[in-house]
Amino acid sequence: MSQILAYLIAFSVTFPIVMTLIMYYIIHFFVTNQKKAIHKSMEYTAILYVVSTIFIVYETFNINMLGPLSIFLLVGFLLFIIIQWKLISDIRIRRVWQLYFRFLFLIFFIANMTLVLVSIYLQI
To answer: What is the chain's mean pLDDT, rounded?
Structure first.
């Protein structure tokens, strides 16, 4: 059982785009609104893209990005809180998390695809 879980986690981190599609189809089965299903699947799989990007950078360039990336993620979250506080003057943590995870998905999806192409180019 533990090996199956380990393989599932390894597959999720290695191929986050496949997990995003699987998550989309699962959510779309329960929620008929396509836009809501896309947003929820982006939010739920954003962390997979972050972890995948960390591993790709480490394997390609042998650079450990865990420390600087943690600081970047915390500062980014604080910026989202400050922006919502300035614009709305009422902080809704659930809304901040949603926007933050969508932002992470956007940034790290692009970073992941770029790093995959760069690592393929460097291996050839």
So the answer is: 93
Question: What's the whole-number mean pLDDT along residues 36-49?
Answer: 95
Cβ proximity of 52 and 19 under 8 Å: no
How far is Cα of residue 6 from the mean position of the Cα atoms in its chain? 19
In the structure encoding, which two tokens stand for residue 35, read together? 């836009």
65 phi and psi angles, rounded to 5 deg: -100, 10
Q: How many helices (H) and strands (E) does the chain have?
A: 5, 0
What's the confidence (pLDDT) of residue 88? 87
> How does DSSP assign 44-85, residue by residue?
HHHHHHHHHHHHHHHHHH----HHHHHHHHHHHHHHHHHHHH
pTM comes to: 0.90
Sign of CA dihedral 5, 114, 81, 97: negative
Is the pLDDT higher at 56 or at 89?
56
Token pair for 37: 């299903």
One-letter amino acid of 98: Q
Q: Which residue has the tokens 């998390």?
A: 97
